[in-house]
Amino acid sequence: MSQQGTDQEQTGVYAVDDEGFIVDTEDTEERETAHRERGTSRPITVVGNPVLHRECKDVTEFDDELAQLIDDMFASQRTAEGVGLAANQIGVDLKVFVYDCMDDEGKRHVGHVINPVLVDLPAELRVLDESNEGCLSVPTAYAELARPDYAEVTGQDMKGNPIKVRGTGYFARCLQHETDHLYGFLYIDKLSKRDRKDALRQMEEGTPRYPVVPNE
Ligand SMILES: [Zn+2]
Protein backbone atom coordinates (compact mmCIF):
# COMPACT_ATOMS: atom_id res chain seq x y z
CA MET A 1 0.00 0.00 0.00
CA SER A 2 1.88 2.98 -1.22
CA GLN A 3 1.49 6.48 0.10
CA GLN A 4 0.77 7.62 -3.43
CA GLY A 5 -2.07 5.15 -3.70
CA THR A 6 -3.43 6.51 -0.46
CA ASP A 7 -3.53 10.08 -1.72
CA GLN A 8 -5.25 9.17 -4.97
CA GLU A 9 -8.96 8.71 -5.41
CA GLN A 10 -10.68 9.86 -2.25
CA THR A 11 -14.12 9.48 -3.77
CA GLY A 12 -15.68 7.31 -1.07
CA VAL A 13 -15.28 7.14 2.69
CA TYR A 14 -11.95 5.34 2.26
CA ALA A 15 -8.85 5.94 0.20
CA VAL A 16 -7.94 2.95 -1.97
CA ASP A 17 -4.57 1.38 -2.74
CA ASP A 18 -3.12 0.61 -6.17
CA GLU A 19 -5.09 -2.64 -6.39
CA GLY A 20 -8.40 -1.06 -5.46
CA PHE A 21 -8.56 -2.28 -1.85
CA ILE A 22 -9.55 0.21 0.84
CA VAL A 23 -6.85 1.67 3.08
CA ASP A 24 -8.11 0.91 6.60
CA THR A 25 -4.78 1.08 8.44
CA GLU A 26 -4.40 4.86 8.67
CA ASP A 27 -5.61 7.18 11.47
CA THR A 28 -7.07 4.10 13.13
CA GLU A 29 -7.08 5.53 16.66
CA GLU A 30 -8.72 8.82 15.59
CA ARG A 31 -11.34 7.12 13.44
CA GLU A 32 -12.27 4.49 16.00
CA THR A 33 -12.50 7.09 18.78
CA ALA A 34 -14.68 9.42 16.68
CA HIS A 35 -17.13 6.61 15.85
CA ARG A 36 -17.53 5.34 19.38
CA GLU A 37 -17.79 8.81 20.94
CA ARG A 38 -20.74 9.60 18.64
CA GLY A 39 -22.25 6.19 19.35
CA THR A 40 -24.20 4.56 22.16
CA SER A 41 -23.17 1.15 23.40
CA ARG A 42 -25.88 -1.50 23.17
CA PRO A 43 -26.11 -4.99 24.74
CA ILE A 44 -24.98 -8.00 22.72
CA THR A 45 -27.36 -10.70 21.47
CA VAL A 46 -26.32 -14.27 22.22
CA VAL A 47 -26.68 -17.68 20.54
CA GLY A 48 -30.35 -18.69 20.47
CA ASN A 49 -31.63 -15.18 19.63
CA PRO A 50 -33.40 -15.57 16.24
CA VAL A 51 -31.77 -12.43 14.79
CA LEU A 52 -28.42 -14.27 14.83
CA HIS A 53 -29.69 -17.34 13.00
CA ARG A 54 -31.14 -15.93 9.78
CA GLU A 55 -29.77 -13.88 6.92
CA CYS A 56 -29.91 -10.14 7.57
CA LYS A 57 -31.55 -7.71 5.17
CA ASP A 58 -29.51 -5.86 2.55
CA VAL A 59 -28.93 -2.19 3.32
CA THR A 60 -30.65 0.02 0.74
CA GLU A 61 -30.69 3.41 2.54
CA PHE A 62 -27.28 5.02 2.98
CA ASP A 63 -28.47 7.75 5.33
CA ASP A 64 -27.80 9.31 8.76
CA GLU A 65 -29.50 6.39 10.46
CA LEU A 66 -26.95 4.02 8.94
CA ALA A 67 -24.12 6.30 10.08
CA GLN A 68 -25.57 6.26 13.61
CA LEU A 69 -25.82 2.47 13.53
CA ILE A 70 -22.14 2.24 12.62
CA ASP A 71 -21.24 4.61 15.48
CA ASP A 72 -23.33 2.55 17.91
CA MET A 73 -21.62 -0.61 16.68
CA PHE A 74 -18.17 0.87 17.33
CA ALA A 75 -19.28 1.91 20.81
CA SER A 76 -20.69 -1.57 21.51
CA GLN A 77 -17.62 -3.28 20.10
CA ARG A 78 -15.40 -1.27 22.45
CA THR A 79 -17.57 -1.97 25.52
CA ALA A 80 -17.45 -5.70 24.79
CA GLU A 81 -13.75 -5.55 23.88
CA GLY A 82 -14.41 -7.16 20.51
CA VAL A 83 -12.32 -7.02 17.33
CA GLY A 84 -15.35 -7.20 15.04
CA LEU A 85 -19.11 -6.80 15.37
CA ALA A 86 -22.05 -7.57 13.09
CA ALA A 87 -25.29 -5.54 13.25
CA ASN A 88 -27.39 -8.53 14.34
CA GLN A 89 -25.15 -8.81 17.39
CA ILE A 90 -26.85 -5.66 18.66
CA GLY A 91 -30.22 -6.88 17.39
CA VAL A 92 -30.31 -4.98 14.09
CA ASP A 93 -31.42 -6.95 11.03
CA LEU A 94 -29.14 -5.31 8.45
CA LYS A 95 -25.99 -6.40 6.59
CA VAL A 96 -23.39 -4.22 8.32
CA PHE A 97 -20.21 -5.10 10.18
CA VAL A 98 -17.45 -3.09 11.81
CA TYR A 99 -13.95 -4.13 12.85
CA ASP A 100 -10.96 -3.01 14.87
CA CYS A 101 -8.55 -5.85 14.36
CA MET A 102 -4.83 -6.61 14.04
CA ASP A 103 -3.48 -8.63 11.12
CA ASP A 104 -0.56 -11.09 11.33
CA GLU A 105 1.92 -8.26 10.68
CA GLY A 106 0.71 -6.35 13.74
CA LYS A 107 -1.11 -3.74 11.66
CA ARG A 108 -4.36 -2.40 13.07
CA HIS A 109 -7.35 -2.28 10.70
CA VAL A 110 -10.42 -0.14 11.49
CA GLY A 111 -13.43 0.00 9.21
CA HIS A 112 -16.97 -0.92 8.31
CA VAL A 113 -18.50 -2.93 5.44
CA ILE A 114 -22.10 -2.77 4.21
CA ASN A 115 -23.66 -5.70 2.31
CA PRO A 116 -20.45 -7.79 2.44
CA VAL A 117 -19.84 -10.78 0.18
CA LEU A 118 -16.90 -13.11 0.78
CA VAL A 119 -14.81 -13.57 -2.39
CA ASP A 120 -14.33 -17.20 -3.36
CA LEU A 121 -10.54 -17.47 -3.71
CA PRO A 122 -8.54 -20.03 -5.71
CA ALA A 123 -7.33 -23.06 -3.75
CA GLU A 124 -3.67 -21.96 -3.83
CA LEU A 125 -4.57 -18.87 -1.81
CA ARG A 126 -6.41 -20.87 0.80
CA VAL A 127 -3.80 -21.84 3.35
CA LEU A 128 -5.70 -23.09 6.37
CA ASP A 129 -4.90 -21.63 9.74
CA GLU A 130 -6.08 -23.47 12.87
CA SER A 131 -6.33 -20.76 15.47
CA ASN A 132 -8.65 -20.25 18.37
CA GLU A 133 -11.82 -18.37 17.61
CA GLY A 134 -14.34 -16.73 19.90
CA CYS A 135 -17.49 -14.65 19.47
CA LEU A 136 -19.14 -11.97 21.60
CA SER A 137 -22.43 -13.79 20.97
CA VAL A 138 -21.02 -17.00 22.49
CA PRO A 139 -19.53 -15.32 25.56
CA THR A 140 -16.54 -16.87 27.34
CA ALA A 141 -16.21 -19.78 24.86
CA TYR A 142 -13.32 -20.51 22.49
CA ALA A 143 -12.60 -23.27 20.00
CA GLU A 144 -10.06 -24.05 17.31
CA LEU A 145 -11.43 -23.58 13.83
CA ALA A 146 -9.53 -23.96 10.54
CA ARG A 147 -10.05 -21.06 8.17
CA PRO A 148 -8.12 -19.65 5.19
CA ASP A 149 -5.45 -17.20 6.40
CA TYR A 150 -6.28 -14.74 3.62
CA ALA A 151 -9.67 -13.27 2.78
CA GLU A 152 -11.24 -10.70 0.50
CA VAL A 153 -14.66 -9.15 0.94
CA THR A 154 -16.57 -6.93 -1.47
CA GLY A 155 -19.34 -4.60 -0.33
CA GLN A 156 -20.13 -0.93 0.09
CA ASP A 157 -19.08 1.90 2.38
CA MET A 158 -21.61 3.92 4.41
CA LYS A 159 -22.18 6.24 1.46
CA GLY A 160 -22.97 3.35 -0.86
CA ASN A 161 -19.69 3.35 -2.81
CA PRO A 162 -18.45 -0.12 -3.84
CA ILE A 163 -15.42 -1.27 -1.80
CA LYS A 164 -13.03 -4.20 -1.53
CA VAL A 165 -11.34 -5.22 1.74
CA ARG A 166 -8.59 -7.78 2.21
CA GLY A 167 -6.90 -9.23 5.23
CA THR A 168 -4.35 -11.74 6.44
CA GLY A 169 -4.03 -13.83 9.58
CA TYR A 170 -6.37 -12.93 12.42
CA PHE A 171 -7.91 -10.10 10.37
CA ALA A 172 -8.72 -12.58 7.57
CA ARG A 173 -10.46 -14.71 10.21
CA CYS A 174 -12.38 -11.63 11.39
CA LEU A 175 -13.61 -10.75 7.86
CA GLN A 176 -14.91 -14.30 7.39
CA HIS A 177 -16.45 -14.50 10.87
CA GLU A 178 -18.32 -11.17 10.55
CA THR A 179 -19.58 -11.88 7.03
CA ASP A 180 -20.84 -15.28 8.23
CA HIS A 181 -22.82 -13.53 11.01
CA LEU A 182 -24.78 -11.49 8.47
CA TYR A 183 -25.83 -14.67 6.67
CA GLY A 184 -27.04 -16.21 9.94
CA PHE A 185 -24.03 -18.35 10.84
CA LEU A 186 -21.98 -18.41 14.03
CA TYR A 187 -18.51 -19.91 14.13
CA ILE A 188 -19.83 -22.71 16.37
CA ASP A 189 -22.04 -23.80 13.45
CA LYS A 190 -18.81 -24.74 11.64
CA LEU A 191 -17.51 -26.91 14.49
CA SER A 192 -17.97 -30.65 14.94
CA LYS A 193 -20.99 -31.61 17.06
CA ARG A 194 -18.71 -32.37 19.96
CA ASP A 195 -16.73 -29.11 19.76
CA ARG A 196 -19.95 -27.13 19.42
CA LYS A 197 -21.34 -28.77 22.52
CA ASP A 198 -18.12 -28.02 24.36
CA ALA A 199 -18.26 -24.34 23.33
CA LEU A 200 -21.87 -24.09 24.57
CA ARG A 201 -20.82 -25.71 27.84
CA GLN A 202 -18.02 -23.13 28.23
CA MET A 203 -20.63 -20.42 27.66
CA GLU A 204 -22.97 -21.89 30.30
CA GLU A 205 -20.16 -21.97 32.83
CA GLY A 206 -18.83 -18.48 32.15
CA THR A 207 -20.10 -14.99 32.89
CA PRO A 208 -19.89 -12.35 30.14
CA ARG A 209 -17.94 -9.21 31.03
CA TYR A 210 -20.32 -6.99 29.02
CA PRO A 211 -24.12 -6.46 28.87
CA VAL A 212 -26.03 -9.12 26.90
CA VAL A 213 -29.64 -9.41 25.72
CA PRO A 214 -31.26 -12.28 27.65
CA ASN A 215 -32.93 -14.92 25.47
CA GLU A 216 -36.62 -15.54 26.05
ZN1 LIG B 1 -19.08 -13.26 16.34
Could you please describe the fold and organization of this structure?
There is one protein chain. By secondary structure, the protein is an alpha+beta fold. It has one domain: Peptide deformylase (Peptide Deformylase), CATH 3.90.45.10. It has 5 helices and 9 strands. It has helices at 3-7, 28-38, 64-79, 169-182, 193-205, and strands at residues 44-45, 84-86, 96-102, 108-118, 128-134, 142-148, 150-156, 162-168, 212-213. The strands form 3 sheets. A 5-stranded antiparallel sheet has the order 2-3-4-7-8, sandwiched between helices. It has a two-stranded parallel sheet with strand order 1-9. A two-stranded antiparallel ribbon has the order 5-6. A hairpin with a 7-residue loop joins strand 5 and strand 6. It is globular, with a radius of gyration of 17 Å. The N and C termini lie far apart (48 Å). Mean pLDDT is 94; it is low at 1-9. Bound molecules: zinc ion (ZN). Zinc ion binds at residues 135-137, 177, 181.
